[in-house]
Amino acid sequence: xxxxxxxxxxxxxxxxxxxxxxxxxxxxxxxxxxxxxxxxxxxxxxxxxxxxxxxxxxxxxxxxxxxxxxxxxxxxxxxxxxxxxxxxxxxxxxxxxxxxxxxxxxxxxxxxxxxxxxxxxxxxxxxxxxxxxxxxxxxxxxxxxxxxxxxxxxxxxxxxxxxxxxxxxxxxxxxxxxxxxxxxxxxxxxxxxxxxxxxxxxxxxxxxxxxxxxxxxxxxxxxxxxxxxxxxxxxxxxxxxxxxxxxxxxxxxxxxxxxxxxxxxxxxxxxxxxxxxxxxxxxxxxxxxxxxxxxxxxxxxxxxxxxxxxxxxxxxxxxxxxxxxxxxxxxxxxxxxxxxxxxxxxxxxxxxxxxxxxxxxxxxxxxxxxxxxxxxxxxxxxxxxxxxxxxxxxxxxxxxxxxxxxxxxxxxxxxxxxxxxxxxxxxxxxxxxxxxxxxxxxxxxxxxxxxxxxxxxxxxxxxxxxxxxxxxxxxxxxxxxxxxxxxxxxxxxxxxxxxxxxxxxxxxxxxxxxxxxxxxxxxxxxxxxxxxxxxxxxxxxxxxxxxxxxxxxxxxxxxxxxxxxxxxxxxxxxxxxxxxxxxxxxxxxxxxxxxxxxxxxxxxxxxxxxxxxxxxxxxxxxxxxxxxxxxxxxxxxx
Length: 638
Hints:
Layout: H1 7-48, H2 50-61, E1 62-66, E2 74-75, E3 81-93, H3 101-109, H4 116-123, E4 130-133, H5 138-146, E5 153-161, H6 169-172, H7 184-188, H8 190-193, E6 199-204, E7 210-211, E8 217-219, E9 226-229, H9 233-249, E10 254-260, E11 267-273, H10 292-295, E12 297-298, H11 305-314, E13 323-325, E14 330-333, E15 336-339, E16 346-348, H12 349-355, H13 358-368, H14 370-379, H15 406-413, E17 420-421, H16 422-433, E18 437-439, E19 444-448, E20 454-457, E21 462-465, H17 469-485, E22 499-508, E23 515-528, E24 535-542, H18 550-553, H19 555-568, H20 575-578, E25 581-582, H21 591-601, E26 605-609, E27 612-617, E28 623-624, E29 630-635
Parallel strand pairs: 2-9, 26-29
Antiparallel strand pairs: 1-6, 2-3, 3-4, 3-5, 6-7, 6-8, 9-19, 10-11, 10-24, 12-17, 13-16, 14-15, 18-21, 19-20, 22-23, 23-24, 25-28, 27-29
Helix pairs in contact: 1-2, 3-4, 9-19, 11-13, 11-14, 11-17, 12-17, 13-15
């Protein structure tokens, strides 16, 4: 019997059996694609991006806590250390290892400047590593080590130290607890000085729990760049010492001084008093940390007459011998009365600067004209920042000449209605000292990399020529006359030719718009030796109470600083001056004794009157110039 087969069912069954094969192929293809993608990704991670992946893995298995960076050193011009690092202990704990937090916090509070509650909060932290005290005092560390508190750890970190105390404190600035620069050079060059911080490495298990090693693993810090300043620490010491003496002698509030090399623009000393010790920041106010010669602006008073005279001579509006009527000490300009300290009649330009006549200064300014005067003040860099490489510089204040009336022109001729900084005055004065060139002042000489290479070295930079050589030389002679014959006699130094100018200004009263009657700023600016200047010096003292004229308050300070600095620099006295005769005090001597003295010394004298000497020219202590006839006034005492 034949069995009849169903062909339709057979075809259907074949189709059903073929369906899973396609599914398997599809799933296999997907798996192959995914496997290929994973392989490509693995190749990228393990070969192409190997270092980055290791870093990620390291972060997952290591916790990092930073140490303080080791900042670069700051040196003076002779490589004497001004800012350094010393290793000091910082205290830490692993909170998970503290068995009795209450007991430990109680013990630590006996030694540290924190309450027991504050320390307990640190000890109960969930973190694997906690700082208890950064940069602890050495005596505290010694006591804690003697106390044998095993749960406390010690790590050496660099602490910023200034080995010379307040020397150039405001110039150097300081750093905060995190070793970040806050003021001065420390702030301005923080990115170079900072260096890279070291790291404390805390290992973690697969679940992220800390595995503490003892001793702990530390990755060393990288030192920052060293900085070499133009400051000479010995000159800085002289300037600070004599400035302090002058301020204390006159019971003044504060003062400042800047000493530069007029040929290069290098700042050799820059002082602000009261001094600032960056080792003890908290003992000083924010105002006391400021670098006054750069930041503080004030009215310059009669020191501005140097630059008025230079402009008028350069423009050939006057000669040094040109005569002016000083109107016996009183002149009316508009609604204002201009006065001189002493009444004068006819004076030459040289005498106007020597004797510091305000009235005749106004007349020179009128001849020069307000636009030209303004132009020269700007050329000397007044009203504009000098762009010295120190932070916090002020531009001072100089109104545009379009806003000047007759009174404003008059007051500006003797230094009122304008404000300047000490560094501006030093820079402008150097123009006269160096023969007419405006040099850019600077305080940073070199930057040295951690491997000892000089990566940046500053060279002197000429900004512009302000006046001609002949004008500068003529002003030099006039300024020598200020010291020899005028208001600056107390700045004279035996054996040296000194050039300078006194300044006395009232302090503006912001409430009234006028001036305080009992507050003054005394100043003296000058350079030496006058024929070949090695230094230019600006001395400013605010609110002296025992006297207030620049010739009395600041000229003696200028003398003491300049004399000592010239000796330190090895500048020899001028032999022609050394051989010059000095005028003795002849007062009270008879005519016969005076004539005998004159014959012995080979000096010519002219006697007026009879009896005994009551007055003399030159004054006692002044140099008797060759060919000068000494004038002696005599009077009968009976």
